């Protein structure tokens, strides 16, 4: 690792340490960013909005997935049947 903090974060996978705990429900996380994302469950914050229909989402990946309902994009196909 080129940065000591990256090694510290990596070691958590091996030790099971989850130092970032939600004060609302007690769930704990490896990373602070994961705790902040989780907090939206309790706060109701939905910062990612669809420009087409106005639906909003807690995570940007969920908005990306939702956008495909408007575009018709289907980026994943079955290798066996093509569906």
TrEMBL record:
Gene3D superfamilies: Classic Zinc Finger (3.30.160.60). The gene is Znf22_0. InterPro entries: Znf_C2H2_sf, Znf_C2H2_type. PANTHER family: C2H2-TYPE DOMAIN-CONTAINING PROTEIN-RELATED, KRUEPPEL-LIKE TRANSCRIPTION FACTOR. Pfam families: zf-C2H2. One of its GO terms (molecular function) is DNA-binding transcription factor activity, RNA polymerase II-specific. The keyword rRNA-binding does not apply. It is found in: Nucleus. It comes from Edolisoma coerulescens. Keywords: DNA-binding, Metal-binding, Nucleus, Repeat, Transcription, Transcription regulation, Zinc, Zinc-finger. Residues 1-19, 20-47, 48-75 form the C2H2-type domain. This is ZNF22 protein. The keyword Nucleus applies. It comes from the Eukaryota. One of its GO terms (cellular component) is nucleus.
């Amino acid at each position: 690792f080129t940065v000591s903090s990256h090694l510290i974060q990596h070691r958590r996978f091996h030790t099971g340490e989850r130092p970032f705990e939600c004060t609302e429900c007690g769930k704990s996380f490896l990373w602070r960013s994961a705790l902040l994302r989780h907090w939206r469950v309790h706060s109701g914050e939905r910062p990612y909005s669809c420009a087409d229909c106005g639906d909003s989402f807690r995570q940007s990946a969920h908005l990306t997935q939702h956008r495909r309902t408007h575009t018709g994009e289907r980026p994943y196909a079955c290798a066996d049947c093509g569906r």
